[in-house]
User: Fold this.
Amino acid sequence: MKQTLPLAEWLTAPRPAQTPIAWLDDKTWTLGHLRHDVAELMQYLQQQEGERWALCFENSYLFIVALLATLHAGKTPVIPGHSRVSLLNEQRRYFNGVLSDKTLDWQGPLRVVSSSATYRDEPYPFPALRHDAWIELFTSGSTGEPKRVMKQIAALDCEAGLLAMRFAERLAGCRIVSSVVPQHLYGLTFRIFLPMALGLPLHAAMLYYAEQLAALDHTHRYAFISSPAFLKRLDHQLTPPPVEMILSAGGMLPWEDVTQTADWLNVWPDEIYGSTETGILAWRYRQQENDAWLPFPGVCFTPEADAFRVFSPLIADDSGLLLDDILQFDANGQFRMMGRRGRVVKIEEKRISLTEVEQRLLELKGVREAVALPVTRGGRQGVGVLLVLDDEAHQHWQNCGGKPQELAWRRALLPWLEPVAVPRYWRVIDEIPVNSMNKRVYAQLQELFHDTP
Assistant:
């Protein structure tokens, strides 16, 4: 197995300055560029009082610059998971300043990070990382409040090592392209840590469309870090690019999309199961629909009531973590997923807190009660909401026919919610149905959407 490079040595390991790190169009950033750019930003951060800096980037090369500069300056990188100014202002208690590749109208210190066109091939004095250095990420909590997750750099290095044990040979000689952002753990691990650990060049931009994937230069070979949502939208009329490997995570990949992807690219996807809190947990390479998941080395699942608690070398808490997913194990230790518990759901590979959606709805003028539910129509899942309005809002709803008001509500929610979390299906009702114990029966609430067009 190829030895992986820990983050602490990304800048200092003895490699030629011309070693390619990332590319975008006809621009290639080398290790020399990276050392120079990190040194400049690190010097700036060392002069700042703030200890915690939010990283808000679209360009993955500049994200790496900011990540390394923050860590080598002895600061803490905070990855809020978005670049929405309204939420940054709301979350400002979690960080002292923002690093970004674009100007943001944020109410606090902001450093717009760019790259030098040239560099000097000379050593830079990068301070050693703190032995307990970490990154902070955010994910939706069950209460609707963003949940802060601390990831030790050592654990992320370990995760890259586990992935290299399984995939390094197949990744050898590949360039890394991706349709997922580094603002979440999946993108951070697979789009940043894995290629940097294996010395593989990475694409600095995200692929949004199948046309961008098909347009890749055929003189290279690629590994594609994807999501089920992107693979569902592949255009099989396009000329397939030379993709040697596909990794998919962030949600369930329907079997139909597995087979259609394999037909077009002539390679079967590798699927990864895990979460922000747990890191990678299991893997599968399906060539049949019901193939089970295989846990990564060191991952152990223990039943607990109607759920499972997981233990892993990547989980710092000795008591492990309780999973939201319902698992069914085979005698050989492999498993299948049977659904999710609780009020957190995955839609288009985004983990959505239905509680947060409800809280944002209750902040809208005239909304007295709100219930958010996952609703499936035509094979596509979205958020459906039931609303109880005050008299004035209800009268306005009736007078305008509903649709204009729905559009107004959607516009009001967009600054606060992921686009896929903004409700697609709306119901205005007189009261929220409850059972004899005054509890909401969600199966009954789902029935109110059965006639949604």
User: Anything to note?
Assistant: The longest strand covers residues 367-377.
